[in-house]
Specification:
By secondary structure, this protein is an alpha/beta fold. It has 8 helices and 7 strands, in the order E-H-E-H-E-H-E-H-E-H-E-H-H-H-E.
């Protein structure tokens, strides 16, 4: 496979870091983008990739950073929309409207803005690129107290289909990876092995384990690659069978 320019948002940690590492291992030129400047610097150095500080909800910043990447490396050929907000939760009766607005602004509008701006540049450069959004099976299977986040991911799935049907004429494929709970460092701290909360999640999963970040990264690399050349508009569950229950 030829070397491509890959941009991974939210790439400074967790799933994004694993995704960046996987594309790097595949021989691609990777740029990570994240709001956390110190973590961007640390991760870029550790993985041997480029790093950009970026707030995906800021259209001017998106345009500025994409212009800088294109000037150095050419147009982005693979966009991974991984950046998102997971930490704000609340029940339907308790979640503040302002909190829901924050969730949607980051997870939906941010993904839209990144897709829009990258796609415009792909089309302008004649690049038949790919976009992979990181969604969640929560968009299809509700968990009490997580409805704000899950509603945003249902919207990401809809955005994936919207972008796929409109960009197909330009040869641009758009798909999503929809994990169940993923064993990031943060989740492992909050739900250590053997804890009742961890066991409760594992008991919902037919394969009886949480996804590793590398499971999500492998699915992302697949959807962005030649092996998925005739796949667009899909949201691929990486959930150990949880949607079956």
């Amino acid at each position: 496979m030829r070397t491509r320019t890959v941009l991974v948002t939210g790439g400074a940690g967790g799933i994004g870091r694993a995704v960046a590492a996987a594309f790097t291992a595949a021989g691609d030129t990777v740029v990570i983008a994240d709001r956390d400047a110190p973590r961007v610097t640390e991760t870029a150095r550790a993985l041997g990739v480029r790093g950009r500080v970026l707030d995906i909800t800021d259209p001017d910043a998106i345009a500025r950073e994409l212009d800088a990447v294109q000037a150095e490396l050419g147009p982005v050929e693979v966009l991974v929309n991984n950046a998102g907000l997971l930490t704000v939760h609340g029940s339907l009766l308790d979640l503040a409207g302002s909190d829901l607005d924050t969730i949607l602004r980051t997870n939906v509008v941010g993904t839209f803005l990144m897709t829009q701006e990258v796609a415009r540049r792909m089309i302008g450069a004649g690049v038949a690129g790919t976009v992979v959004n990181i969604s969640s099976i929560g968009g299809r299977q509700p968990t009490p107290g997580m409805g704000g986040y899950e509603s945003s991911k249902a919207a990401v799935d809809a955005l994936t289909r919207w972008a796929a049907i409109e960009l197909a004429a330009h040869g641009i494929r758009v798909n999503a990876v929809a994990p169940g709970p993923v064993l990031t460092e943060m989740l492992a701290l909050g739900m250590p092995e053997g804890s009742p909360q961890r066991k409760a999640w594992e008991d919902r999963i037919p394969l009886r384990r949480l996804a590793a970040v590398d499971d999500v990264a492998a699915a992302t690399v697949f959807l962005a690659g030649d092996g998925a050349a005739h796949i667009t508009g899909t949201s691929l569950p990486v959930d150990g069978g949880q949607l079956l229950t």
